[in-house]
Amino acid sequence: MTTTTTRTTVAAPRAVERVVAGTATSDGDGVKLTRVLTQPLQRRLDPYLMLDAFGTDNPDDYIGGFPDHPHRGFETITYMIAGRMRHRDSAGHEGLLQNGGVQWMTAGRGVIHSELPEQHDGRMEGFQLWLNLPARDKLGAPWYRDIQSDEIPELTTPDGVTVRVIAGESHGIAGAVQREGTEPLYLDVHLPAGARFEQLLPAGHNGFVYVYRGAVTVGDTLVGSQRMAILANAPDRDGVVVRADEPARVLLIAGRPLAEPIVQYGPFVMNTKEEIVQAVQDYQAGRFA
């Protein structure tokens, strides 16, 4: 759905603390990707643990997909810009992720899943974001939802900016998913040339902007394509302002930090080493869903 709404004004925009270039890597069965939010940034961007960006026209870069692998203790959010990916998991969920859709999975106490391409040629492009779970929810039941493209609320600002509200709220439009513990904001923002977009953010939330088309100015900082701008935290700042001199597309992501210990071992993210050992033992014993 599309709604035209009045802009929400940001009085004191955040500055950019630093601009980050991702690291080229591969995962799954040789899928090539760029890891934008890496493990050393987890404390700084709490509650987010990882952001991977992938995009290629070469089937050799994605055809192997992500065969069966486990997770425990966090949520995975996969946003597909182009392509088709089939999800199956050990909790009995199955779905097709395709152009413009989102797959939101809560691993909770443990799930084994696969994400395999349902195409042999053409472009595959998208993002996978890892969102931490509060300690009280880490051993909850696994959960899964496929959100088709037409189920993602959209708004259009007077400047002609289109905003897809995947999670949280923007300009009075509630997103497809809400989370009480981490209060995630996940926006896909499409800016025409000369446009400006403002988004209110609680001062205590961590946030970043990832540019995946064109270039934008965040605060006073120019942020180029395939770059992440980490937003500075300051108690007197109330939001972020993004401007585009050329057509651009960005992800704006923010959330309430959990301020809890983060202990990661591969696909398991818990609060203590003992909990990680238990996760490995449970997985090896076949106790995941």
Characterise this structure:
This protein has one helix and 27 strands. It has 289 residues and is mostly beta strands. It has an eight-stranded mixed sheet, with no helix packed on it. A seven-stranded antiparallel sheet has the order 3-4-5-12-7-10-13, with no helix packed on it. Strands 6-11-8-9 form a four-stranded antiparallel sheet, with no helix packed on it. β14 and β15 (162-167) form a beta hairpin. The radius of gyration is 18 Å and the shape is globular. Residues 1-7 have low confidence and may be disordered.
Summarize the structure.
The chain is mainly β and 289 residues long.
Describe the largest sheet: 8 strands, mixed
| Radius of gyration of CA atoms, rounded to a whole number | 18 Å
Q: Name the average pLDDT.
A: 95
Number of strands: 27
Order of helices and strands: EEEEEEEEEEEEEEEEEEEEEEEEEEEH
Please give a handful of descriptors for the protein shown.
1 helix, 50% strand, 289 residues, mainly beta
Layout of helices and strands, plus pairs?
Blueprint: E1 2-4, E2 16-21, E3 23-27, E4 31-37, E5 48-56, E6 66-71, E7 74-82, E8 84-89, E9 94-98, E10 102-106, E11 111-117, E12 124-132, E13 143-147, E14 154-156, E15 162-167, E16 169-170, E17 173-174, E18 185-191, E19 196-200, E20 206-213, E21 216-218, E22 221-223, E23 227-231, E24 239-243, E25 248-255, E26 263-265, E27 268-270, H1 273-284
Parallel strand pairs: 1-14
Antiparallel strand pairs: 2-23, 3-4, 4-5, 5-12, 6-11, 7-10, 7-12, 8-9, 8-11, 10-13, 14-15, 15-18, 16-17, 18-25, 19-24, 20-23, 20-25, 21-22, 21-24, 26-27
